[in-house]
Design a protein that fits this description.
Distance between the termini: 52 Å
Strand order of the largest sheet: 15-16-13-4-5-10-7-8-33
Shape: globular
Structural class: alpha+beta
Number of strands: 40
Strand content: 35-45%
Helix content: 10-25%
Radius of gyration: 27 Å
Length: about 700
C-alpha cells in the first residue's frame, strides 16, 4: 500500500481512498471475530473535503471476552473521534500521547488463511483500539469511528470510495447496511455517479448539493460504495470556506477564525503551460527483477516518454552499480527522440547492486543547461537500499544537496520507493529537501501510481508559488511550503484568522521566467458556520503534516525532534486528530445510556440535560430543549435521523454559559424538503457527551 511521507499540496488528486468496515478481533491466530450485523456509513462532503462516520454493530457468538477493534484507515485519512457502546452504555475513547498498540489478540499474522486475509483487509495503516470492556456472550458491541480526508481530485472529477466488500473477513449476511452521502459545493455539480451492486435508494443533484442513499437488508457486505462527481470546469479561480468559533471553545489563542481555500488554474487547451526539463531515474539493480517490478518500471517509463509535451527536454538515467544514460544530456522531445527513448527502455534489465549517489551524480549536473523559465523535474524510482558508493544516509543527502546547489537550478525531486526494502528516511529527505515528496509503494502499484502522478505534473502553470495576506489578520497557514501549480490540479491551504474582515490573498510565482501575481478577495465569516466545522480538524491535520515533515528530517533521538514530537502530540490531543505519536485508548462514560428503546439514564450529574422536545407528536414544528449546567462557550450539534438510521438534518447550537436552550425543527431535511410522517431520533452532542431521544411527526 502507498504511504505518503511528505504531505503534497496536490495529494488529493493522486490516490484513491481505501476505507471499510471495522473488525472486532477476539483471536487473530485462530480466526475468531465478532459477527458484523449492521453497518451504517454517513458521509458529509464540502467541496472535496469529507467527514465520514462509520457505525458498526457486532454480536459476540463466544463466551464473555475482550476484543480489539481494527479499522483499515487509509493513508490520507485522519481519525478524529471514536466512541463505543457496551451493554447499552456509550463510552468515548480518550486520545493519549502514545503510539497505538498494533498487536492483535492471540497473535497471528502468518498462520491460517483468514488471518492472512485479515492482514490484507486491514492494509498498511490500520487503526487499532482495544475495547477495555468485556463483551458478554450474545451481546452487542457498537463502534462509531469518524475521520476527515481530502478526496482525490483530477480535472474537475472527485472520487469517494468506501470499500464495503467484507468477504475477506466474513461472508454471512448482515441484518442491514446503510450508506448516506451528502455533498455541497460552491462549484456547480455537473453530474454524480454511483457504482455499487446494491440497489440505490436515492440519487439527487440540485446543482450545488447532491445526495445518495443506499440501503440493504439480509445481504452480505460484498460491494463497495463508489461515488464520483464532476464539478463545473468553467467555475475556476478561488473558493474559500470559513467559520468563526465561539469565545472560549478553542484550546489555543491563535484566533477564533478558521479558513481554507482551493485555487485551480484553467485546465483548457488555451491555458499556456511551462515547458519541462525532465529526468527519469530508474533503478535496475538485481532486486528489480522480482515480482515484475522491472517490467512495471519499463512500462511506466514508456508511458511517460509517450506523454511528454512539445517543447520539453528529457533524459533517462538507469543504474545499478554502473550508471548509463539514454543521452549524455537532455534532448528536445520529438517523434525521433521519443522512438529512440522507447527502444532504449525496452532493452533495460535488472542486474548488479545499487548506487543511488552515482545516479544523482550523473543526473543533476545535466540540469546546468536548463534555466529558470522551465520546470526542472526529477522522478526517481528505486526498490532498495544504497549498496554501492555512498551508502550513509546523511552523507548521501548532503551529497545530492551539494550537487543541486552547484547546478544553480531549482530541481523538483519526487521519489518512489518500491516494496519494504527501501530507506524511507533517505527518500523523504531527498524529496522534501528539494521541493517534492516521497511515496512508498507495494510491488504491484508501481505502474499505476507513477503514471498517474506524471499525468498530474505534466502541465506546470506556476512555479515556486508563495502566498501572502493583507491585512495581517491571517496566521498559521499550512502547508507552509507550496508546491508548483499544475493544470487540472488544485492548491489547498488552511489557516487561522483573528478578525472577520475582507482579506486579499496574493499568489506570486514564476511563469515563463516572469514574475506572476494572482489576487483574490476572501470574505471571512464573523460567526459559526456549522457546515464548515470540519475546518478545525483540517487545519490541525495540515499543521501536523507540516510538523511531521520537519520531524522526519531530524535524528529521532535529537532534542529538536523530541520538541517537535511533543508539539505534534499536544496538537493532536487538543484537536483530536490521530497522529503516529497518539492513539485512542480506554474511554469514559458519556452522560447518556442508549437502550434498545432509546431512553437515557443519567449515571452522574451531567454537564447538560436533554429535556426532550415539545410538542411530541408534532406538526409541523417542534422545539428541542436542552439545559446546560456548566459555564462553557462551545457549539453543540443536533443530528436528526430517520428510524432506519438515515441522517436527515444537522442543526448547530451555539452555547454561551449555563441556562436553558431551545432549537426548532420544522420537519425538513438537509435540502429544505418536508420529510414524511414517522418516528425520528435526535441526538445532541456537546462537551464530549451524547444524549438521544425519539420524537414523532404526524402530518
Amino acid at each position: 500500500m502507498k504511504k505518503i511521507l511528505r504531505s503534497f499540496v496536490f495529494c488529493l488528486f493522486l490516490f484513491v481512498t481505501n476505507y471499510a468496515n471495522g473488525v472486532a478481533v477476539k483471536d487473530a491466530a485462530n480466526n475468531l471475530f465478532l459477527t458484523l450485523q449492521q453497518s451504517q456509513v454517513d458521509v458529509t462532503v464540502q467541496g472535496q473535503i469529507s467527514v465520514t462516520k462509520v457505525t458498526n454493530v457486532f454480536k459476540n457468538p463466544f463466551d464473555s471476552c475482550l476484543v480489539k477493534y481494527a479499522f483499515p484507515l487509509g493513508e490520507q485519512a485522519s481519525a478524529v473521534n471514536l466512541r463505543y457502546n457496551v451493554d447499552g452504555v456509550w463510552y468515548i475513547a480518550n486520545m493519549v500521547g502514545q503510539p497505538q498498540d498494533t498487536t492483535l489478540p492471540g497473535g497471528g499474522g502468518g498462520g491460517g488463511s483468514t488471518t492472512s486475509n485479515l492482514t490484507t483487509y486491514l492494509g498498511s495503516t490500520p487503526l487499532y483500539f482495544a475495547i477495555p470492556n468485556y463483551i458478554h456472550k450474545d451481546s452487542l458491541l457498537i463502534v462509531e469511528l469518524s475521520y476527515v480526508e481530502l478526496l482525490p481530485y483530477k480535472f474537475g472529477k472527485v472520487s469517494y470510495n468506501f470499500p464495503n466488500d467484507y468477504h475477506l473477513v466474513q461472508t454471512q449476511s448482515l441484518l442491514s447496511q446503510q450508506f448516506s452521502f451528502y455533498l455541497t459545493s460552491q462549484r456547480k455539480i455537473d453530474s454524480i455517479f454511483v457504482q455499487c451492486s446494491y440497489p440505490v435508494s436515492q440519487v439527487s443533484n440540485t446543482g450545488n448539493s447532491a445526495y445518495v442513499s443506499i440501503s440493504t437488508e439480509q445481504q452480505a457486505a460484498s460491494s463497495n460504495y463508489m461515488i464520483t462527481y464532476v464539478l463545473d470546469a468553467s467555475q475556476l479561480g478561488l473558493f474559500s470556506y470559513s467559520t468563526f468559533q465561539p469565545q472560549g471553545s478553542l484550546p489555543d489563542s491563535l484566533g477564533r477564525g478558521f479558513f481554507s481555500f482551493i485555487a485551480e488554474p484553467d485546465p483548457s487547451v488555451s491555458t499556456s503551460t511551462i515547458s519541462k526539463v525532465f529526468t527519469l531515474i530508474v533503478d535496475r539493480s538485481g532486486s528489480m527483477s522480482y515480482e515484475s517490478k522491472m517490467d512495471q518500471a519499463k512500462q511506466a517509463a514508456t508511458y511517460i516518454v509517450q506523454n511528454l509535451n512539445e517543447g520539453d527536454k528529457f533524459n533517462i538515467i538507469d543504474f545499478d552499480d554502473i550508471i548509463t544514460c539514454f543521452q549524455p544530456n537532455h534532448v528536445a522531445y520529438s517523434p525521433e527522440t521519443k522512438a529512440a527513448a522507447i527502444a532504449y527502455i525496452q532493452n533495460l534489465y535488472a542486474r548488479g547492486s545499487t548506487s543511488i549517489s552515482g545516479a544523482f551524480g550523473t543526473a543533476v549536473p545535466q540540469f546546468t543547461s536548463a534555466n529558470d523559465s522551465t520546470a526542472n523535474i526529477i522522478m526517481f524510482l528505486t526498490d532498495g537500499l544504497p549498496t554501492a558508493d555512498i551508502i550513509n544516509t546523511d552523507a548521501l543527502v548532503n551529497y545530492v544537496t551539494q550537487l543541486i546547489t552547484n547546478s544553480g537550478r531549482k530541481i523538483y525531486t519526487y521519489c518512489f520507493g518500491i516494496g519494504s526494502d527501501v530507506n524511507t528516511q533517505l527518500l523523504t529527505l531527498l524529496a522534501s529537501n528539494n521541493n517534492g515528496f516521497a511515496t512508498i509503494l507495494s510491488n504491484n502499484e508501481l505502474y499505476a501510481t507513477v503514471t498517474d502522478f506524471y499525468n498530474s505534473i505534466r502541465n506546470p502553470v506556476l512555479l515556486s508559488p508563495k502566498l501572502s495576506f493583507s491585512p495581517a489578520v491571517v496566521s498559521q497557514v499550512y502547508p507552509d511550503s507550496l508546491s508548483n501549480l499544475y493544470k487540472g490540479n488544485q492548491l489547498i491551504a488552511a489557516g487561522r484568522y483573528s478578525e472577520a474582515v475582507k482579506v486579499q490573498a496574493t499568489f506570486s510565482g514564476k511563469a515563463f521566467n516572469k514574475d506572476v501575481t494572482y489576487q483574490y478577495m476572501l470574505d471571512l465569516s464573523d460567526s459559526l458556520v456549522v457546515e464548515n466545522q470540519f475546518m478545525t480538524k483540517l487545519w490541525a491535520k495540515k499543521k501536523i503534516e507540516s510538523l511531521l515533515i520537519k520531524y522526519y528530517r531530524l535524528d529521532a533521538n535529537s532534542s529538536e525532534a523530541a520538541a517537535i514530537k511533543d508539539q505534534i502530540t499536544k496538537l493532536s490531543i487538543a484537536y483530536r486528530v490521530i497522529t503516529p505519536f497518539t492513539s485512542f485508548s480506554g474511554g469514559y462514560i458519556g452522560t447518556g445510556i442508549e437502550t434498545k428503546h432509546g431512553a437515557n439514564k443519567n449515571l452522574a450529574p451531567t454537564e447538560f440535560e436533554l429535556l426532550g422536545n415539545y410538542p411530541n407528536p408534532f406538526n409541523p414544528n417542534t422545539i428541542i430543549r436542552i439545559r446546560v449546567n456548566s459555564e462553557v462557550n462551545t457549539v453543540f450539534e443536533i443530528r436528526i435521523y430517520s428510524i432506519t438510521g438515515e441522517l436527515v438534518k444537522i442543526i448547530p447550537l451555539p452555547v454561551h454559559g449555563k441556562g436553558d436552550y431551545r432549537v426548532s425543527w420544522d420537519g425538513t431535511n438537509m435540502f429544505g424538503k418536508q420529510v414524511a410522517s414517522g418516528i425520528y431520533i435526535y441526538s445532541v452532542t456537546g462537551m464530549n457527551q451524547i444524549m438521544t431521544k425519539k420524537m414523532m411527526l404526524l402530518r
